[in-house]
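Quick one, tokens below. Sequence please?
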């Protein structure tokens, strides 16, 4: 298939949307990012790589980090993880408190903020304060074979200083005994994980590990069975885009995960991983150009899982 030609065609097709939406500004450090950037990287399981635009520019992965923390906690806890966090789509915003209140402090899934604050707590209990940050970064570095991937403490600090809603979520979780550690420490780890910076090339490499469904997963000391990897993909399919998960499934037809830094990763098991980055977001917090480019990609290549 002429992937490069298709990608360049898609790049032209999305141009009418290029000025729609704006970058996340509730995190002050993210408001400073130039919104008019676009990158894409497609990595085939067989090894070929195709790129567009700023595929090598790093950005804040934000909620894409929730896939990595889920992988780590599932590896640590196995089935017991599901006592503390569910696997149902939330149908509500990523930072919503409402459902958490009437469901007595058990987050719907690990990809909304409440769920990822619980997985942060699990990592903290297991590794302790300093080690948790180190082990998380080592895992991400191992996944993409690149040792200079780092946290951006300025972004984490910026979010912590305005993160009232996430703090409210953490307090509600603690009230319901679903947080074991000090709230400040849990939020610090959560914000640090969100602040990791990667580019499209590195994210596509990292997510090929989740697309590989014919061998057990073992990266940076984190081990998962083939079934666990499939289940992570299932949660990406149903919960990866918050209250737009149905829309993404409907239009793109792949498991994936977005973040408010404007990145979206999607994968086709056994075939490819693709990452798109563009900071302008829609009202649900998902990249406008990213969503459109992926919809066109699976339509024009006829390569979606359905
Ligand atoms: N750090 C962000 C937050 O907690 C992540 C949100 C996202 O990417 N959807 O609000």
């Amino acid at each position: 298939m002429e992937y490069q030609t298709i990608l360049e065609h898609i790049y032209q097709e999305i141009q009418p949307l290029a000025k729609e939406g704006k970058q996340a500004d509730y995190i002050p450090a993210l408001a400073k990012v130039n919104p008019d950037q676009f990158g894409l990287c497609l990595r085939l399981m067989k090894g070929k790589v195709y790129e567009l635009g700023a595929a090598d520019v790093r950005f804040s992965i934000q909620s894409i980090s929730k896939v990595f923390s889920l992988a780590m906690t599932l590896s640590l806890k196995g089935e017991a993880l599901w006592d503390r966090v569910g696997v149902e789509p939330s149908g509500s915003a990523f930072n919503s408190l409402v459902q958490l209140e009437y469901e007595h402090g058990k987050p719907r899934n690990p990809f909304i903020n409440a769920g990822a604050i619980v997985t942060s707590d699990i990592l903290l209990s297991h590794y302790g304060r300093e080690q948790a940050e180190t082990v998380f970064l080592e895992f991400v570095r191992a996944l993409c074979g690149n040792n200079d991937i780092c946290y951006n403490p300025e972004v984490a600090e910026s979010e912590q200083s305005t993160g009232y809603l996430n703090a409210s979520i953490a307090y509600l979780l603690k009230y319901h005994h679903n947080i074991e550690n000090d709230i400040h420490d849990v939020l610090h780890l959560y914000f640090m994980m969100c602040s990791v910076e990667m580019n499209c090339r590195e994210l596509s490499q990292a997510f090929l590990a989740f697309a590989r469904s014919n061998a057990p997963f073992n990266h940076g000391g984190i081990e998962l069975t083939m079934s666990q990897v499939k289940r992570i993909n299932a949660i990406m399919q149903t919960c990866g885009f918050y209250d737009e998960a149905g829309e993404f499934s409907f239009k793109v037809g792949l498991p994936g995960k977005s973040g408010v830094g404007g990145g979206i990763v999607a994968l086709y098991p056994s075939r490819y991983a693709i990452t798109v980055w563009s900071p302008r977001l829609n009202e649900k917090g998902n990249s406008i150009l990213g969503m459109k480019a992926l919809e066109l990609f699976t339509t024009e290549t006829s390569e979606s899982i359905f």
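Residues 3-62+199-215+227-301 form a domain with the Beta-lactamase fold (CATH 3.40.710.10). The beta strands are 39-44, 49-53, 59-60, 197-198, 217-219, 222-224, 256-258, 263-268, 272-277.
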